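ok, trying the design again with the full structure, not the truncated one.
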């Protein structure tokens, strides 16, 4: 077998998800094509640091006229960056590589680059941008692995938007394409996504009782006429109107306390304890409570009233006949951070900050607190430090991730 035949055979092995077979053919070669293939193989085996180094060596080894080969190396490095949750990797470099591949007729790798860009947008909650780019791609002429990736992204967007029927259909399509591709890792990723649809995604609290809810149940609740205090997104909604309290934590805590007690009232001291985090109420707290209740009453004026009672205050919806609280499956101070770490991948604090829209210092404090409670662990040092945790058993994290729900 000639040297070029070895490269071709290694590339075919990688496309079939057989990195060891690829390495058997090019492990001892240091020419540019072999370096690139070795890098991709190491990435499939999970050695991302070694993979990145090999791909950069390959990009340098390709000649100045081999623009397509260097663009493919950029795309492969972008995929490694996504897998290692290096969300600060420059998206312009990926887009430039995609344009080069398109210009030279390499439409499959150009599409792969576009899918990487869409997956990054999905990961950081930019669903509108992800959908816009996805609409520009027709997966029908693509090989099975790329069709599976397309369907998996469709399912991911649908799950974030709580369109569960669309998500199930897309996952079924992805599973069929993955079976045709015969790539075990791709099938496992799709199976994991499918299991999330059958795992508790939230808790429903109604009249003092609570039960777990699947994504389908959440979708049905938000489409109903019920008055819902949504503790996953910190909004109040009644089917037609949504009021955000995401920047008003005291008002949201008051709304949740009133909703959990509905149709009964809540004593003033109880509201003070929950909203102001104090066990000893005085006249100052009671005066502040009256002010905050007035603000809440004003914000909810199109949905409900907050009536004063002899003991405290009661929620009185205008149109809804039922009041419910939609809570996270696991109540945790740093639940949003845990939600990202629960995907089983390793994250840097800078990537978490970018995905959460928070400062890196805020995220670092949260990680330190979680580490002190043995809920997360880190490895590496400095810029190479990464954080990870096993997934929370039996729980979907869709509602913890940053994406708007219907009506937001």
């Amino acid at each position: 077998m000639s040297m070029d035949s070895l490269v071709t055979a290694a590339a075919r092995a990688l496309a079939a998800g057989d990195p060891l077979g690829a390495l058997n053919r090019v492990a001892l070669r240091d020419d540019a094509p072999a370096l690139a293939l070795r890098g991709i193989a190491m990435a499939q085996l999970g050695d991302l640091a070694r993979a990145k180094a090999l791909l950069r060596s390959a990009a340098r080894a390709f000649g100045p006229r081999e623009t397509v080969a260097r663009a493919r190396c950029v795309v492969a490095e972008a995929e490694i960056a996504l897998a290692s949750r290096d969300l600060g990797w420059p998206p312009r470099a990926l887009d430039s590589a995609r344009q080069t591949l398109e210009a030279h007729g390499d439409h499959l790798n150009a599409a792969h680059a576009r899918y990487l860009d869409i997956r990054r947008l999905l990961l950081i909650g930019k669903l509108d941008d992800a959908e816009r780019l996805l609409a520009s791609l027709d997966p029908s002429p693509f090989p099975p692995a790329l069709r599976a990736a397309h369907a998996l992204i469709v399912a991911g967007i649908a799950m974030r938007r709580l369109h569960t029927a669309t998500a199930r259909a897309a996952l079924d399509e992805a599973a069929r394409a993955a079976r045709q591709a015969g790539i075990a890792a791709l099938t496992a990723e799709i199976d994991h996504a499918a299991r999330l649809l059958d795992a508790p995604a939230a808790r429903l609290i109604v009249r003092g009782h609570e039960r777990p809810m699947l994504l389908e149940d959440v979708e049905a609740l938000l489409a109903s006429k019920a008055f819902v205090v949504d503790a996953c997104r910190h909004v109040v909604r009644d089917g037609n109107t949504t009021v955000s309290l995401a920047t008003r934590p005291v008002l949201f805590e008051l709304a949740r306390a009133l909703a959990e007690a509905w149709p009964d009232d809540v004593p003033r001291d109880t509201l003070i304890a929950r909203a102001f985090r104090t066990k000893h109420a005085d006249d100052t707290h009671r005066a502040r409570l009256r002010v905050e209740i007035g603000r809440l009453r004003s914000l909810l004026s199109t949905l409900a009233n907050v009536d004063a009672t002899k003991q405290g205050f009661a929620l009185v919806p205008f149109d809804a006949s039922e009041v419910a609280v939609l809570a996270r499956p696991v109540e945790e101070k740093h639940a949003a951070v845990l939600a990202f770490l629960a995907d089983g991948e390793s994250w840097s604090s800078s990537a978490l900050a970018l995905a959460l829209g928070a400062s890196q210092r805020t995220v670092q404090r949260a990680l330190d607190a979680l580490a002190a409670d043995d809920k997360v662990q880190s490895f590496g040092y400095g810029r190479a430090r990464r954080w990870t945790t096993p997934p929370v058993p039996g729980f979907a994290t869709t509602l913890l991730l940053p994406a708007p729900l219907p009506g937001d």
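Keeping the full-length input from now on. The chain has three domains: 3-196, 202-327, 335-400.
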